[in-house]
Write a structure and sequence with these properties.
nucleotide-binding, binds adenosine-5'-triphosphate, 362 residues, ATP-binding, 2 domains, OB fold (Dihydrolipoamide Acetyltransferase, E2P), Rossmann fold, ABC transporter ATP-binding protein, 6-stranded mixed β-sheet, 5-stranded antiparallel β-sheet, alpha+beta, 8 helices
Length: 362
């Protein structure tokens, strides 16, 4: 079966500002209806990529297609794309209804149609009861929903959201993330979402595009990127991890074994392509270590001294100093099968070959 035409397709995209290259080697196909997140540290080019898709900037070289059509010559207002900015750019002298209706009025739609569409959109963002409030009488979360409604009322095929929750405090942000998922499901639009917050990216996205210094370094479903980062940068950027400098000691049908200088060995089933002697960095997430042997015969183990315990609600984080002095962080769920050791005591820690990721040195 032929794959459907992507709604957005960028091939060999490059964007320079004078002699500064902001984006390079951008190859990206965005599927209709997905929530795709552009994730990466400040300055990596996320906003620039959004502005290219919106049409506020043009590519220096390469192609950008929307629904199969090269849009190099298509101005922003003629693209089926709408952008919600970090500072919502709402009109303070208009009420909620008028803010949402604004774009439709400019387009010259009939009053009855405007009223119907705005009402439907206010219903979706659950602001019907505040239709006549002015913007400065709203909370941050409510302003954000007005901004969303104002963009969505134009029924764009693609909605670009540039750090839309950055100005909100944590509680409202978590609530708005759930809202965003619901609104996405109700409208069926493609959402392209910019954030530098990995939790937001993981909660919201169908796929994550991880960027570093103007390049895409990995595109994956969030759970795959978390479990199988392809670089040290990806392993460190998405979630917490323990890293060990090692060299490959053996590679065979069982997997690859890499050892630290002090002799701790890690067997990995994911270390394909490495040769004996290769220097690799082993990455193991805190929740992939355990104080309990899982009895499946695949466990590996080492010993150390428990230095510190931090309780965070349902989880605890243990710091264990291994006998070679390396420190390991271990996440333990409360009410787990095995009682974790006391601070100061010696402990055996276990891990499974499936959770050992071997990465090239940076
Ligand atoms: P942040 O998370 O801080 O918003 P970002 O990943 O969105 O960062 P961009 O705003 O896309 O990053 O910027 C990428 C790089 O391009 C930065 O180094 C920035 O200084 C540069 N840049 C962006 N716009 C311009 C411009 N108009 N002229 C010159 N340089 C620019």
């Amino acid at each position: 079966m032929k794959a459907p035409t992507p709604i957005i397709e960028i091939r060999d995209g490059k964007k320079s500002f004078g002699s500064f290259v902001a984006l390079e080697n951008i190859n990206l196909s965005i599927h209709e209806g997905e929530i795709l997140t552009l994730l990466g540290p400040s300055g990596c080019g996320k906003t620039t990529l959004m502005r290219l898709i919106a049409g506020f900037e043009g590519l220096t070289s390469g192609t950008l297609r929307v629904s199969g059509e090269d849009v190099a010559a298509v101005p922003p207002e003629r693209r089926p794309v709408n952008m919600v900015f970090q500072r919502y750019a709402l009109f303070p002298h208009l009420d909620v209804f008028e803010n949402v209706a604004f774009g439709l009025k400019v387009k010259g739609l009939a009053k009855s149609e405007i009223t119907e569409r705005v009402k439907r959109m206010l219903h979706i963002v659950q602001l019907e009861s505040l239709a006549n409030r002015y913007i400065d009488e709203l909370s941050g979360g409510q302003c954000q929903r007005v901004a969303l409604a104002r963009a969505l009322v134009n029924e764009p095929k693609v909605l670009l959201l540039d750090e839309p929750l950055a100005a909100l405090d944590l509680k409202i942000r978590q609530h708005m993330l759930a809202e965003m998922k619901r609104i996405h499901a109700e409208t069926g639009a493609t959402f392209i979402y910019v954030t530098h917050d990995q939790d937001e990216a993981m909660i919201l996205s169908d796929r994550v595009v991880l960027m570093e210094k103007g390049r895409i370094v990995q595109i994956d479903r969030p759970e795959d990127m978390y479990a199988r980062p392809k670089s040290l940068f990806a392993a460190k950027f998405l979630g917490e991890t323990n890293l060990f400098e090692t060299a490959v000691a053996d590679s065979g049908a069982q997997g690859t074994v890499a050892k630290t200088a002090s002799g701790i060995g890690f067997l990995s089933r994911n270390g394909v392509g490495h040769k004996t002697g290769d220097k690799v960095v082993v990455s193991i997430r805190p929740e992939s270590f355990s104080f309990a042997n899982n009895d499946e015969g695949s466990s590996q183990k080492t010993q150390g001294q428990v230095e510190d315990v931090v309780f965070i609600g349902s989880r605890s984080f243990y710091t264990v100093r291994l006998d070679d002095q390396a420190k390991v962080r271990i996440q333990v769920q409360r009410n787990g099968r095995v009682k974790p050791p006391e601070p100061g005591s010696r402990a055996t820690i276990y891990w499974d070959a499936d959770n050992v990721v071997m990465l090239p040195q940076a």
